[in-house]
């Protein structure tokens, strides 16, 4: 993982993150100063950032918001203080309300981003300066250490060409913690079509089949916030009991992101939270599915069913039966 250290210094009122990357300084600089690349990693998993303003000049400002899978929102703004390409820049970082005004009761902080060559790649040193010990403690208590680590650890996927990053890796499963799993798969096709393939019943029935021998016989989808969906699979040869899943759409931001609940049909068991994001680069689309399980036991039980293998079979069909048509 890129992040090598996150330290607090109560005496000097600082929080410092250090991360190393196998990419030149100029490439890392570009990732932090292009808002479309920055928003791919600035928010931690499940809280992606969207930058609505980005005036990258001394005295200019940037505004962004992050939205959780359940629709909670956090907003922030930067005032650019100093810019020294490609060695670094500094900002005044402020929590904002829905109207873009500073949020009462929350601190403003000076953040310094420094980039330097290191071990054939580059090193980021990000130091945040606080005005009081209380402000430092408040920010740490809000999860700044964990959140910033998870966020910056996503940067490797941004620094590489998308195809180079995903080449030959198929469907990848990463255990982020006891209850969160991230699944990624590159699809050779445009994001709009990949989005449609996830939400239109006639397209879903062409690819979301899992292992050979199964058919998706029911695909009912109301892809609106508050809408519901239901899937049911049957085995071609019979003799094996069918199964299904159902849930509700919580968040829809077409064609970029959708969040749904999911539980097995006909059961009262706990549901998962499925956060689907699509990112397109040069005609290829990276699918990222962040799954939140109710507990570690449920996570391990579902992964042990061979879920990732079934998803890879389905994604392969997505490319061959839908995207290539």
Tell me, briefly, the overall form.
elongated
Task: Please state the CA-atom Rg, rounded to the nearest Å.
Answer: 22 Å
Number of domains: 2
So, CATH architecture of the largest domain?
Answer: 2-Layer Sandwich
On the 0-100 scale, what is the average pLDDT?
94
CATH secondary-structure class of the largest domain: Alpha Beta
Strand order of the largest sheet: 1-2-8-7-6-5-4-3
Q: Could you tell me the number of beta strands?
A: 16
Overall helicity? 10-25%
The topology string of helices and strands comes to EEHHEEEEEEHHHHEEHHEEEEEEHH
- How far the N terminus sits from the C terminus, by CA atoms, comes to 38 Å
Helix/strand-derived category reads: alpha+beta
Major beta-sheet overview: 8 strands, antiparallel
Account of the protein in words:
With 325 residues, the chain is of the alpha+beta class. It folds into two domains: 3-160, START domain (Alpha-D-Glucose-1,6-Bisphosphate, Chain A, domain 4, 2-Layer Sandwich); 163-323, Alpha-D-Glucose-1,6-Bisphosphate, Chain A, domain 4 (2-Layer Sandwich), CATH 3.30.530.20. Helix content is 25%, strand content 42%. The protein has ten helices and 16 strands. It has an eight-stranded antiparallel sheet. Strand 15 and strand 16 form a beta hairpin. Helix 7 (191-199) packs across helix 8. The chain is elongated. The two termini are 38 Å apart. The mean pLDDT is 94. It comes from Microbacterium ulmi. Pfam families: AHSA1. Residues 23-159, 190-321 form the Activator of Hsp90 ATPase homologue 1/2-like C-terminal domain.
């Amino acid at each position: 993982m890129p992040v090598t250290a996150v330290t607090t210094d109560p005496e000097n009122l600082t929080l410092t993150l250090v991360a190393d990357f196998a990419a030149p300084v100029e490439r890392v600089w570009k990732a932090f100063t292009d808002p479309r690349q920055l928003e791919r990693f600035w928010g931690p998993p499940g809280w992606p950032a969207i930058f609505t303003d980005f005036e990258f000049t001394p005295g200019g400002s940037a505004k962004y918001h992050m939205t959780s899978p359940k629709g909670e929102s956090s907003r922030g703004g930067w005032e650019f203080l100093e810019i020294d390409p490609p060695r670094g820049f500094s900002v005044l970082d402020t929590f904002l309300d829905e109207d873009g005004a500073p949020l009462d009761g929350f601190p403003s902080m000076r953040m310094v981003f420094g980039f330097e060559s290191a071990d054939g790649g580059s090193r980021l040193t990000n130091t945040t300066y606080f005005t009081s010990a209380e402000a430092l403690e408040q920010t740490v208590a809000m999860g700044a250490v964990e959140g910033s680590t998870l966020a910056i650890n996503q940067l490797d996927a941004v620094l590489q060409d998308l195809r180079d990053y995903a080449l030959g890796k198929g469907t990848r499963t990463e255990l982020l913690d006891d209850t969160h799993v991230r699944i990624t798969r590159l699809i050779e096709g445009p994001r709009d079509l990949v989005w449609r393939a996830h939400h239109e019943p006639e397209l879903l029935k062409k690819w979301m089949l899992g292992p050979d021998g199964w058919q998706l016989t029911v695909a009912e989808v109301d892809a609106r916030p508050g809408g519901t969906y239901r899937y049911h699979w049957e085995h071609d040869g019979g003799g094996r009991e069918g199964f299904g899943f159902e849930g509700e759409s919580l968040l829809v931001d077409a064609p970029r992101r959708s969040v749904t609940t999911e539980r097995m049909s006909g059961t009262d068991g706990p549901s998962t939270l499925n956060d689907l994001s699509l990112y397109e680069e040069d005609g290829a689309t990276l699918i990222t599915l962040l799954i939140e399980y109710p507990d570690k036991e449920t996570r391990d039980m579902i992964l042990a069913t061979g879920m990732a293998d079934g998803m890879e079979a389905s994604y392969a069909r997505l490319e061959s039966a839908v995207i290539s048509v």
